[in-house]
Amino acid sequence: MTDYLSLRRDLHAHPQTAGNERYAHDLILKHLQGLHPDKVYTHVGGWGFVAVWGRDPQAPTIAFRADTDALPIGHRCGHDGHTTVLLRLAELIDEEFSIHNSQFSILLLWQPAEETGEGARAVLESGILQQYNIQSIYALHNLPGYPLGTVVLCPETFAAASTGVVYRLDGRETHASTPELGLNPGLAVAEIVRRFDEFNGRGGDFRQSTLICVRLGEPAFGTSAGHAEVMFTLRAFSNKAMECLLAEANAVVDEVAGRHGLQVGRSLVEPFRATENHASCVEKIRAAAAAVPLKVQEQQLPNRWSEDFAEYLLHFQGAMFGLGSGEGQPELHHPDYDFPDALIEPAARLFFRLTQVG
């Protein structure tokens, strides 16, 4: 068996950010050359990779996805571990798949650019997944704060919808001695910031608005500001709630800007859908965990962060689940975070069990 601990640490030592995952892509290719998938696709959606066991694209197919990109501070989210889990799964499939390969196919997807929310859409746009009769698709994310190896289930939403929003407010500069002759967006910005803070905790469903950045005018003390940008991150626990929140946010900006005589421009940055699980697939994860066996824990609320695995769930039935990476583990994206090697084997075994139940 491959030394997967060394392999994971090799990936950890060579982090590459979204859109630059060449090292992971080539490592996956090299590893799979020692195995026997029936079909391999390279450079999927950029530096993505797909391997398929099964020769009939019309056969029922179960798919598994891992993410390969790192943060600018390195592999501090565990994608190196997720990638390695799928490589170990590939080995398990290679050992066992011939027993039942006439009945269904298994597709493994190593996806780039998860952190920016671009990778899943790029993979779907490649059209490769649509060539297969995918009955279900699964993914995991390690979760600090839970006991090591505990399967964490969210029957409905696993991770929140979110998007960055940038509003540009255009007025008119004038001399600082005669501000009444211009259109300074400062007061409008202040009102928008206050009004957006009111989104937090209002209504029955979770909604969140986080102020990210404000840019107003220039450091020219003879000129009254005429332009501003104000940026927020919006979050909600369902796609419907996110649509309502964004519509309400846009209406607030339009109303405030209109009263101040300002023109409005807007754009979205890194939009993520909510990762809304299919209940039947969550139950299959529960059954597979019992067979490994691994302990199962229900998560009462979705994770506030976002995952672009949500894009696949708009096209295929499936589910994402958590795998505890330790109660004392630093949080995701913390400089001291590192994926626990002890999760590689049980996670791969759980995925393999899903090929038998899901």
Task: Describe it.
The protein has 358 residues and is of the alpha/beta class. It has two domains: 4-159 and 274-357, Aminopeptidase, CATH 3.40.630.10; 166-272, Alpha-Beta Plaits (2-Layer Sandwich), CATH 3.30.70.360. Helix content is 31%, strand content 28%. It has helices at 4-12, 22-32, 79-96, 119-126, 186-197, 239-259, 279-291, 310-313, 344-357; strands spanning 39-44, 48-53, 60-67, 105-111, 133-143, 151-153, 157-159, 161-170, 174-175, 207-216, 223-224, 227-236, 263-272, 275-276, 296-298, 318-324. An eight-stranded mixed beta sheet has the order 1-2-4-3-5-16-6-15. The chain has a four-stranded antiparallel beta sheet with strand order 10-12-8-13, covered by helices on one side. Strand 1 and strand 2 form a beta hairpin. The radius of gyration is 23 Å and the shape is elongated. The model has no long low-confidence stretch (mean pLDDT 96).
